[in-house]
Design brief:
Largest sheet: 6 strands, parallel
Order of helices and strands: EHEHEHEHHHEHEHEEEEHEH
Radius of gyration: 19 Å
Strand content: 15-25%
Bound molecules: guanine
Oligomer: single chain
Distance between the termini: 44 Å
Strand order of the largest sheet: 1-11-8-7-5-6
CATH topology of the largest domain: Rossmann fold
Number of helices: 10
CATH architecture of the largest domain: 3-Layer(aba) Sandwich
Length: 285
């Protein structure tokens, strides 16, 4: 039987609608949630992401400040710009779009974001709190993946979950969040032996490896939930995931498409985090 496609558009719209309702409540109390996004340089993919975030803010009633800095901006200049925004009490969330130009240290930039404004969930404090299960901002892509799995009604508890990829932004935190849902988690990466066999055991497969159609039909267990985090620009100029979508639709029970899947949920979760940041900075739950 063909799998069910998990519709990121519908799910993201639901999440954003919930945020928009809460934003109305906050505004009635005189609080206008505000997200500041800094982009350095003109990476076209980054520009598209930043434009998307601006649009999402508009839909949710969140104020959006977008600062586009030239490619030649120095690290010092970027840190100065960030310092102004971190000191501004009307700015609740601060995000610096990655990747940054090579002459700027991503580590130094991330560490300059105060944890309470770190709506990406990238700072060491938020990563640490997530790891030990304390309240924190969850990184948006992994949090979006979990919401998508939850939307299927399939319980993660006790299931074999396999994460392909070990990046700090997706693979590692996705594994931790699956663990928090009581899944039995395996992380596979470029050095993993018997990768296909391991994937075949997965009741839940999260692909975040950055290679077009890396996950073929023979790597998917019958009835699995397949979450495709990949966004790869194919030779045809179109966006493709890390999963062979047609093959996955034949084997799995649920599959996320690309585009129209995880990417939209990532953006929706950023709105959730920005709302949360505005509440926390105004001592609201
Ligand atoms: N670049 C690609 N994805 C992301 C993200 O989630 N946050 C930031 N800041 N940069 C990114």
């Amino acid at each position: 039987m063909a799998a069910v496609k998990i519709d990121g558009k519908v799910l993201a719209a639901q999440v954003k609608e919930e945020v928009a309702q809460e934003v109305i409540r906050l505004k009635a109390r005189g609080i206008e949630p505000c997200l500041a996004v800094i982009q350095v340089g003109n990476n076209p993919a980054s520009t598209a992401y930043v434009n998307g975030k601006e649009r999402d803010c508009g839909e949710c009633g969140i104020k959006s400040l977008v600062l586009r800095l030239p490619e030649k901006t120095t690290q010092e200049q970027l840190l100065e710009t960030m310092a102004k925004l971190t000191a501004d009490p009307t700015v609740h969330g601060l995000l610096v779009q990655l990747p940054l130009p090579k002459h700027i240290s991503e580590e130094a930039v991330i560490e300059a974001i105060p944890p309470e404004k770190d709506v990406d969930g990238f700072t060491p404090i938020n990563v640490g709190n997530m790891t030990i299960g304390k309240p924190c901002f969850l990184p948006c892509t992994p949090a979006g993946c979990i919401r998508m799995i939850q939307s299927t009604g399939v319980s993660m508890a006790g299931k074999q979950a396999v994460v392909l990829g070990r990046s700090n932004i997706v693979g590692k935190p996705a594994a931790l969040l699956l663990l928090r849902e009581n899944a039995t988690v395996t992380i596979c990466h470029s050095k993993t032996q018997n990768l296909k066999e391991i994937c075949r055991q997965a009741d839940i497969l999260v692909a975040a490896i950055g290679k077009e159609a890396f996950v073929t039909g023979d790597m998917i267990k019958e009835g699995a939930v397949v979450i495709d985090v990949g966004i790869n620009r194919g030779a045809d100029g179109k966006l493709h995931g890390d999963v062979d979508f047609a093959a996955a639709m034949e084997k799995a029970a649920y599959v996320t498409p690309v585009p129209g899947g995880v990417g939209l949920m990532t953006r929706a979760m950023l709105m959730v985090n920005t709302l949360q940041a505005a509440k926390l900075q105004n001592s609201m739950k």
